[in-house]
Fold these 2 entries.
Entry 1:
Amino acid sequence: MSTASTEKTLAYTADFHDEAPLVTGDLTFHDITEIVSVHTEKKTPLAWYGAFSLALSGLMIMIIMIAYLFWNGTGVWGLNNPVGWGYAIVNFVFWVGIGHAGTLISAILFLFRQQWRTGINRSAEAMTIFAVICALVFPGIHVGRIWAAYWMLPIPNQMDMWPQFKSPLLWDVFAVSTYFTVSLVFWYVGMIPDIATLRDRATSKIRRRVMGVLSMGWTGANRHWRNYEKAYLLLAALATPLVLSVHSVVSFDFAVSIVPGWHTTIFPPYFVAGAIFSGFAMVVTLAIVARHVYAVKNIVTIDHLEKMNIIILLTGSIVGFAYITEFFIAWYSGVQYEQYAFTNRMFGPYAWAYWTMMSCNLFFPQFFWIKKLRRSIPFMFVISILVNVGMWFERFVIVVSSLHRDYLPSSWDYYTPTIVDILTFVGTFGLFFTLYLLFLRFLPQVAMSEVKGVMPQADPHFYDHAGDGHVAEHSVEVSPENEQPN
Amino acid sequence: MSQTVKRSNPLMWLIDPLQPTASQADPVYRFKWSQMAWMLPLAIGIAGLVISAVGWATDSRQFFFSYLIGWSFCLSLALGGYFFVIIQHLTKARWSVVIRRIPEALIWSFPLLAILGIPIVLGMHDLYHWTHLELIDPTSEFYDPVIAGKASYLNTPFFFARMAFYFLVWTWISFKLYTLSLRQDVDPDPSIPKQQRKISAIGLPLGAVTTAFGGMDLLMTLDPHWFSTIFGVYFFAGSFMSIMAVIALVAMILQRNGMLRGVITTEHYQDLGKFLFGFMVFWAYIAFSQYMLIWYANLPEETIFYRHRLEHGWEVFSAILLIFHFIIPFFILVGRWAKRILPVLAFMCVWMLVVHWFDIFWIVAPVLHGDHAMMSLYDVSAWLGVFGVFIGAFMYRLSRHALVPQRDPRLHKSLSFTNT
Amino acid sequence: MLNQLATQVKATMGIYEAQDDDVYGVLAEFAHPGELLRAAKAVHEEGYSHFDTHSPFPIHGMDKAMGLGNSIIGWITFGGGIAGLSLATWMQWWMGEVSYPINISGKPFFAVEPSIPVMFELTILFAALLTVAGMFALNGLPRPYNPLFYSREFLRVTDDAFFLHIAASDKQFDMEATPQMLADMGASHIESIRDTGEED
């Protein structure tokens, strides 16, 4: 069907390029290997030790706070009647939410064939895993009788007692632990070819052995790639509904109850959008620093950052729209308790938190409509941090503002966290950055094989025109085998 | 507007705002089918409407509800197309260029749908309980304080104002999307892709708000006591799922009649099938979220919605919805084969469109027949009536222009697209 | 008989047996993915079956060129999903309804609605773990010892080099003709690999 006129229209479109290259600076495959691998092989820079000791100090604070909590019980937190859920659940939801961007980038963008994800997916997946670890700390330490924490799992016991499967908190146990396991497996499977690269570059015997064991004898064989790629696709297809389910289940913790401001049907998709929103903000924050320090600016380009900022704008607006819908339906429902809960959020004792949330989540991201601003590194750095502040406050507003006014006015109270609450939360950042710095130091932070795979010279047809490096755009032809057998 | 594409006269404008450009289309992309293409659906549509008119005369309450179901079904398809086109532009999608003209032609249905909405305007009193003024009159014995509290939102003038606003937004954005793309067929203006993205960026938030509130206004307020924050998303999920089925079906019908052979390939169908599957699951996720949260909290003002649909025979309809809208299609569409063997895909597309209609039926009809489940002849006739006219106008529009955005810069990528 | 089957299965994983004189196969390097794809196609058309290409990233169209079908791993995933779903359904019913029934807010001991989240999670968990386990099994990994590692050149396969390996166990393999054929195809570096079993 390649008629002359078709050729003409195609020729018209052939030199159209409005997509920036995924990898800038005319890099070869070997350059990618070098740029990424060298950071795991060179002598540890002093700055890394500086950052690591700072992170480790944070982790120590967390450990001390948890030890103090275990010794004294949950009374050391600011929880009391009626606010029985405070910092712990806020931080839990905050950290789980951060993790979602990693899965979104590695799984959902993979299914949508968004090739730009290759520059950032590995570090974003690492972020997911570490964020979920930080999240898991909180329900773990919140159970009070810590020695009975394993009762959360269906383990046969002599009391013949089983967990209560109608409890949404138990769904959380299953959802978050499944999420952690699948993310870890996905991350590791994705990393095998890159660890093999490190193995083949290793100069010391011990390093070769360690990397050799971790890479499982990978040789880049096509018989292996065949099953590997299919498995990767299937994992992405499984991780996509999984990531939706995790934050939906987290939202069920609130939404199945009959607490005004918690029980609303939009919660599942709205929590998922919020999680992606905060997670992308965290990825942007980390990517800005990492590409600067590790000189991977040709792989994590400004276009990558811009695309993430667009996702921040999109999800921020979804979240903002959900706030407004919730508010509208609270009025529309005609239920006085709902109406009170929402006016109380806006104008009550926690109005400061509500308006922090509104401005950080709905208002500030709107600046990303302006192309100049979403390509400005300092600006996006500030916004990305503000978004995470805003998303932390969102959970704070939901948890605290709904609880501090219950149905019994005599028990109304104003919740304030104690120093233990605050330091535990600060300490989790220590845990997060300790793990993240170890990752940056010892493992490839960019998915080398995936980046190479999306470079133009990876396409075997790139060389069709005697290897002149121009993909033969005019040679689009519709072969008879594509014809429909209708 | 470019010199090469002229506007239609005002009456024609409702069907197609532009004069035909088919003569400038590449022969491969030209519409090659007789007038039957649009006359047949139009004839079915008119027949359906005539039968329904009998219903209007004899059983007007039933007619209005039946008509609302059929009309909302077509509106949801148009909205699905609206989001589909916008998302393709915003993501600079390559795979979908060869099929994009189909939803582009579909979205110029909003003016026609506005006109087809007249029976609903006339039937407001029968359809929407909140229009009864005695409910908000404190002296009346029918006074309902809950509905009276909503009167500042649920009142007829404001309802019409909102509808007018929604339709203006949809028409305006669709006009831009439709005409820009047609202009590109004949006018090599390199700034068009950028303009398309710009209007899409404006259209997305506007469309999200108007669709969510439009869905609530048209369907949720049928039971003015009931409320659910997720309802707008539920409406969107069904719409976006159905548009995939429409695109795939129209493409297959065109190919069957000798058009676009080798242009749209199994690869494109597989992608449409994936989206059909994905959004079918998304619909199930939204439907489950809504149901489970209401089931669990067990508050009477919310459970009333499901109670109406789980007694007096409606439980059978609810079970059918669950089984045919999710469980069976899940196991069929999950496989790669179902998306690549075209007769199977065609069958599933028809299936999903029917169950999408059934979904809207399931929302609307129990409001009328709360005490005994039934499906009326007029439900089917009004559905076929509105849908036939809707599709007839769409086919006519499609026949006047190239079937593919022939100068879209990503067309060659779309032609050579393969799934990995 | 059983041994033969094992050999065949191993060959699909790219694990071959060394032939006379410890010869494992011939390794040839190609300049870029385009050449490798062409060479693989040619080798397949020549009738070889015990061969494989090695590259730093998957090459689009290589499965077809080598004459390999679609991976069967999807069925393993499906099986895992069904197993997880059944286990979760049975577990919640048995624990909630049979072994430890307890009235919580007047809800049924076992109901489908609140059981769906856990059913879903275990479906995904089992499907994902079986997918990965299945991938490793189908690929014959982990494989700490591989005669190809004896080649110094082969170290670059995970960096920027593209190799084609024809195993000596192939029926058509010939110490003279096979390397010659690869050379004719434009291979830049041809090396015979010996499976000596030594530690390097």
Entry 2:
Amino acid sequence: MNVIVCIKRVPSTETNVRIGSDGKSLDPAGVEYIISPFDEIALEEGLRIKEKAGAGLPAEASAQAGDVTVISFGPAETATTLRTCLAMGADKAVLLKPAAPVNPEPFVVASALAEAIKQMPHNIILCGKQAVDDDNSQVGAMLARLLNIPFVSLITKLEITDNKAVVHREIDGGYEVLETVLPAVLTAQKGLNEPRYPSLKGIMSAKKKPLEENTVTPAAPGLEIIKMEYPPIRPAGRIVGKGVEAVPELVKLLKEEAKVI
Amino acid sequence: MTNPILVFAETQDSKLKKSAIEVISEAKRQSDNLKAEVVAMLIGSGVEPLAKDAASYGAAKVIIIDGPDFKSYTTGAYTQALMAAVEKTKPQAIILSATSNGKDLAGSVAAELKTTAAQDCISLTYDNAFVARKPVYAGKAIITVKIAKQPAVITLRPKVFPASAPDASKSVSTEKLPVALSADSKRVTVKETVAAAKGKVSLTEADIIVSGGRGMKGPENFKILEELAGVVSAAVGASRAAVDSGWRTHDDQVGQTGKTVCPTLYVACGISGAIQHLAGMSSSKYIVAINKDPEAPIFKVANYGVVGDLFEVVPALCKELKK
Ligand SMILES: Cc1cc2nc3c(=O)[nH]c(=O)nc-3n(C[C@H](O)[C@H](O)[C@H](O)COP(=O)(O)OP(=O)(O)OC[C@H]3O[C@@H](n4cnc5c(N)ncnc54)[C@H](O)[C@@H]3O)c2cc1C
Ligand SMILES: Nc1ncnc2c1ncn2[C@@H]1O[C@H](COP(=O)(O)O)[C@@H](O)[C@H]1O
């Protein structure tokens, strides 16, 4: 089973967003970067697939049970993020660096990923359900289309048998059970698993694992970012009162001032 | 007349989704400026009777792709269906709602059209091309994008665009479009749909959300929130701390790595207001916070704050509302 996991490097969720001097993008000063949280879940699932396939096999056969490869489209700094993935347990990493700076909009990213993945053995491709910076939720679906393989988003459970996978997909008010032929692209939703932390041994061995860097020519973007702005400021919070005594006043405000009840 | 605007009108339980009505209404407002026609698309099994509803909100024409193959949503089948309508109508824009399925389908169709979808937009204008605003970093910033490529693929955030009043006198012109699924589109099959507890209000569609955090102290205590929710027809949400403690299921989580919600009223009980939680709910119209710590950051964004023990305040609130 060869698993490919698509990883995006994103600002930490703690980031207090400040807009850069171009008025169109995030000011990167002081920003810490992380693996997008849903991609961490995708990677964890990839590692579990491999561990399950290799379980009980002798060392040599288990080594041939397949690889987990992480791949990312992004600037040179993304190599650090991919090293963390290797430390978590991925076997190989591939970094696709755009030849010129480009806004990494989903079609640009998916096109570059698809071209690279076509050349790589793959039985299953895992993405996050969305990258937590641009919240686009579309690279996975695009990748499936460009590779002409099936797609299921928002999975919370995955079982693989032969050339098929049975997944649970989150829907409004419940879930669906779907079956797909493999290879397929699946996107990870919270609930699929709890990602592991890199172990000390993992961190040491990550240094020796292969990280391939390739420069790619990005596709033409379809969207032009005109500006970035802050959301409207909420009026300063107001304390109605303390404890149960405040309740009648609260209800009055909700009914008469806010008119929401 | 310019090229039409094609709308994917999502259905659920033999009805147009509320979000689909919002999308048709907005498409109609855009089309009036552009001198274009709104063509609504119904995909499903037994969806034909909904055509007149789509027309009542402003669709001049309704394309129907109906059959057992389309009973449940799968990306492959619905992409093939939507692309058949795109070829037929040559739209200048394809507008969907930014629901789970809407976003999923938008990405897939955008790839077919070799472009990127403007996903989860909160406003839409036209200036030689569609120009949309969309939140990024879970709402910590908003970007404005110009959609250069035609057809533009756009999804609209639910509950942001107003629904028009229906006009039942509008006549409807329908066209049934036969689509035979390709072998490729049949590679994914839905085996079973498991619904959560019946009557559960969905977080993303709810007008009122009552949410609990670590301050709830345990799963059994959520019954006081369920009761409050029952009184005001609200959905129950949770912070990540409550979800990670196993008190609530993952799909209840509100925040940057959970659901982004914008109800008219959000009641946060025993939630401190961490940046990741605020990211998911701070565009709510009104926020109420109940927390025993007067310094909790949630009070900074709450229109109405009550400092106190939620185990006393929530039941009292419930009682007062029942009066
Ligand atoms: C990558 C990442 C992603 C994250 N994504 C999310 C997300 O999507 N959503 C999210 O919510 N969090 C998210 N978090 C977690 C976030 O940082 C906080 O840890 C979390 O929101 C805290 O939840 P809480 O407010 O319920 O708990 P706490 O911060 O522990 O707050 C509990 C509050 O309850 C109050 N309280 C206690 N007892 C009572 C009582 N009897 N009556 C009244 N008040 C009481 C306390 O005063 C306190 O303010 C994320 C974190 C990371 C690192
Ligand atoms: N630059 C990128 N490099 C690799 N994978 C990416 C990149 N951007 C997005 N992805 C993958 O696609 C998923 C969805 O991203 P998005 O459509 O941007 O919300 C992410 O969770 C990643 O798995």
